[in-house]
Design goal:
The chain is mainly beta. The chain has a single domain, classed as Porin. 7% of the residues lie in helices and 52% in strands. It contains 2 helices and 17 strands. The radius of gyration is 23 Å and the shape is globular. 40% of the residues are buried.
Amino acid sequence: MKLTKTLIAAAIAGAFSAGAYAQSSVTLYGSLDAGIGYVNKVGGGALWAQTSGAMSDNYFGLRGSEDLGGGTHAIFKLESGFNIGNGKMGSWFNTNNGTLFNREAYVGLSNNQYGTVTLGRQYDSVVDYLRPLSLAGKGVNLAAHPFNNDNIGAQYSISNAIKYESTNYDGFHFGGMYSFSNSPGDFSGGRQWSVGTGYENGPLKVAAVYDQLNNNYTGALTGAAQDDGESIFWAQTQRTFGVGGNYTVGPATLGLVWTRTKLQNGFGFGNMRFDNIEANGVYSLTPSLALVGNYTFTYGRASDLNGMTQDAVERWHSVALGADYSLSKRTDVYLAGVYQHTSTGYQGPASGDYFQTSIAGMLPASGTPNQVGAVTGIRHRF
């Protein structure tokens, strides 16, 4: 009898142990995107080259979760972006100076009722709430706005950040993030904060965001978005506000996004502003074949320029079209093209052409008012 009780107790203990183990998980995941691209009017000629992440970024990562009971989980995420053409860390936009986890690296707690708090390197509210409503957020990096001026292209993340994400309240959710400057005696310089909210009801999705970066280029330590070369603009203050919405009708999803980015002391000699208005759409011809497209109008203005008596104004007209064919749930092939036209070619007071054509992922830019880019490739997710 005693032996029987011992065996039963051991079996029960083993069952609980197995259950606890099953409630913890670590997952390896990633995305691979490579292709052949063409871009014209580069140094007086055309360029053919292998592309990396023209449609979706190349990255791999680990994410994990441990059940702590009562609807609470400990979570973590470590994610690295890389160039698939040469294997180097970073993306088509920057190398992040070799940072290992250059996209995200955080740990935190998540509760089914109260939401999620995480600490580490993370994306801002623009990426979390507004990007999914743009064509870039639907897997077409080429459709990001000129110079990625609003981070719709998700080309930088924020270091030293604490972030909160609410749970879903009848379709409504919200969140915010604050990153520390990590600079002694300079609490505000080099810090960042952002807030966002979204609502989903059936075929309708809407979102609004605000993001602010305070850069301190004289600080001894590195702050929110300047430590790995990922800050898009060299400006004392960068503010972005945006709203957007998507609506699904049958096999079609239509989207509209507006953002405004204001730069104070941009590039060290004046103030700048970018307004982006994007209309986008995705149409599923079959379960395997989808057509995508967008049109973006970007208005740029530079004011208070050193040595200039009037403001400099430029307008970008960008059109992206593409087709995507799924070979399986995780693998697809694509063909996409982009045309961009600028109304002027402003030459700044410092060396360099600051206002020019800027097709995301199709570097180098053109020195002329028009540029065409095209790419075909394969994408695999795991």
